[in-house]
Amino acid sequence: MPKPIPTQQLIDSLLKGDRLALARAISRVEDDAEDAARIVQAVFAHTGKAHLVGITGAPGTGKSTLVSALVESYRASGLTVGVLAVDPTSPFSGGALLGDRVRMTGHSGDAGVFIRSMATRRGIGGLAKASAAALLLLDAAGFDRILVETVGAGQAEVEIASVADTVVVVEAPGMGDEVQAIKAGLLEIADIFAVNKADRKGAARTVAALEMMLETGGASAQTILHHGQRLEMGAAASETEAAGGWSIPVLKTVAISGGGVGQLRDALEGHRAWLGESGALAAGERKRLDHMLQTLVQAELLARMERALSPELRRNLVEKMQGRQIDPYSAAADLVKKL
Amino acid sequence: MPKPIPTQQLIDSLLKGDRLALARAISRVEDDAEDAARIVQAVFAHTGKAHLVGITGAPGTGKSTLVSALVESYRASGLTVGVLAVDPTSPFSGGALLGDRVRMTGHSGDAGVFIRSMATRRGIGGLAKASAAALLLLDAAGFDRILVETVGAGQAEVEIASVADTVVVVEAPGMGDEVQAIKAGLLEIADIFAVNKADRKGAARTVAALEMMLETGGASAQTILHHGQRLEMGAAASETEAAGGWSIPVLKTVAISGGGVGQLRDALEGHRAWLGESGALAAGERKRLDHMLQTLVQAELLARMERALSPELRRNLVEKMQGRQIDPYSAAADLVKKL
After folding, report:
1. CATH architecture for residues B48-288
2. What is the mean pLDDT of each run of 10 residues along chain A (339 residues)?
3. Considering CB atoms only, which of B132, B181, B321 is closest to A289?
4. DSSP structural state of residue B309
5. Which of A32, A41, A68, A89 to mutate to test binding with chain B, by most B CBs within 10 Å of its CB?
C-alpha cells in the first residue's frame, strides 16, 4: 500500500493540477474519508471556472462514444477536459461500467484529459454527494470543460440537470415507442439534443420528431419546460426569460467517426456564451449550490439515522410488523421519537 | 367536487374490496393527506396475502404490453389482479406515462382488475413511500396478485427488488451493447427473465446471452448475486440457501399476441411456491418491511428538514457560497446545527 499523502499536501498539489493528487482527493470524497470535508473546503474558493456539461440518454444511444469524441474535439482546440462518468445502475456490485469503456478510448497518455467513473456505493444520496464534490475537485484542478456522463432514464436525469450548466440529451434512431414517451421528461432538461448514430435508418425521422416536440411545446411553454428545474428559484427564472430564451438545437452526430461532433462542440460553446450573457450562468450556479447544500444536509441526516438505529431495535420492530402487532407508520414514528 | 368519504367509512369499504374506496385511499397516501397514516394503520393487519410481482426492464422492451397480457392470463385462471405502474422518469411534469398506456388495454370493465399509475411528485423518497403504502392498500383490498411495473434502468430496479416477492426482468432482442452491460445489474435482481418481442430477429441470441451470463456466474455466485438484496439480512440469506437455490428461467414471450405468457404465469406461480417452501417468502417480507420502515423514517426526517429550513436562511447561505465566503460543507454543517 502506498503511504497516504498528507491532506495539506494533497490540497496544494491538486490546486497545481497534479493528476495523482486529484485522483486521490476524489477517492477520499468518494469514501467519505475523514479529511473529505477539509479538502472540499480548502479548494472551494478556486471553483466556478469550468463549463459543466451533462450528457445523458437511454442505454444504446452511444453516449460513451460521443463523450470520447467530444473530448477529442475539445483537445484539438486546446481546451483541457475532465470527465466524470456517473453510473447509478449497479448498486449491488459497485461496478463502474461507463468509466471502463471511456477509459479504453485512447486518451490515457494525454495530461489534458482526466477520466473518472463513479458508481453507487452507499445508500440514498451517497452518489449525489460524492459526485457533486468530485465536480468541485475537477473544477479546482483547473480543467476548462467538465463532462458528466450518466446513463438514463430516471432520477439520474434530474441529478444531471442539477449539477450541469448545459445538458446534452443523446438520442438514437429506432429506439422504440416507449423512448418517445420518455422524451417528455428529457425535453424538460435538454439544452441541446444530439441524435447520435445519425448514419442509421430513421435518423431523419428521429430529428423531425424531436423538432416537432420542441415546436408543439410552443415558445413560452418550451421556455418554461426547458427551465423547469430553474423555476424552483423565482429570481433565476425571470432573469433567464428577460434575456430571451435559448433555442434548443437538434444536432446529428456519428460519434464513432467524429461526424457532427465539431458542431456539437460549437453548440456547447454557444450555450455557454448565452448563459453568461443572459445571467443564467450565475442563476444556474445558485441552483447547483442550493442543490448541493440540500444533498449534504440530507446525507448528514440519513447518516445520523443509520448510526442511531441499532440493528436489534430495527429487527425487533420488523418482527412485530411481520406479526401484524404494529404497523409501519407507528413503527416509524417510534423510531423517529428515539432519534 | 365530490364530498370526501369519512376515513372510517373509506377503510371499511376498502377492506370489502370496494374499488372507489381503494382509489380514494391510494390518492390520500399519494397526497400524504392527514388521514393517510390512519388508513394504512387500519388496513395493515389485513395485508400479507397477495403475491407481489415486480416487472422491470429498459424502455422499448414492451413491459406494459406484457403486463397487460399477464393480467389477462391471471384473469383467465380466475385470479384477481392489481397493477401499480410506477414511473420515476417524469419528475417535473408529474405525468404518469405507463399508467395511461396500461389503462387503454381493455380491462376497464373488469371488477377483478384494478390499475393505478403513480409518478414522482415530491422530493427524494416521496415516490417510494407512496408506492409502498399503495401496495399495502391493494393487498388489503384482497387482490390475489399485484403487479408493480417500473421503467428501468437505475435506482428504480433497486426499489422494485425491495417491494416485490418475485422480480421479472424484461429484455428484447437487439437493444445494443450498452444494454448488455446493464444486465450485470439486472442479473442481481431477476428471479425470471422474459425475452419479449421474441418473434424478432436476434431473440435466440439474446436468450443465449442471458443463459450464458447466468451459467458463467456459477451456481453459488449466482445464488449470491441473485439474492444480493436479501444478503443484507443475514438470516434471510441462509434460510434461502438451505432450501436450495431457485434456478432463474429465461422465457420467450410475444406479449402482443399472448405468446409465451402462460409459461411466464406458470413460472411466476412456480417461484411463488418455491418462496413458500424455502422460507424465502417470510424472509422477503421482513426485508420489505424493514425497507418500508427506513423509507418512512427517511421521509419524516427529510420533511422535518424542509420545514426547518426557511427559504431566507437557505437563500442567504447560497449567496454566501456563490461569493465563496463559505463552502458547501460548512454551510451544511451550519444548517444541521440549526435543526
Report:
1. 3-Layer(aba) Sandwich (3.40)
2. 85 96 94 92 95 87 91 96 79 42 61 85 68 95 94 61 89 63 64 94 87 65 34 32 73 96 98 94 91 86 78 91 94 85
3. B321
4. S
5. A89
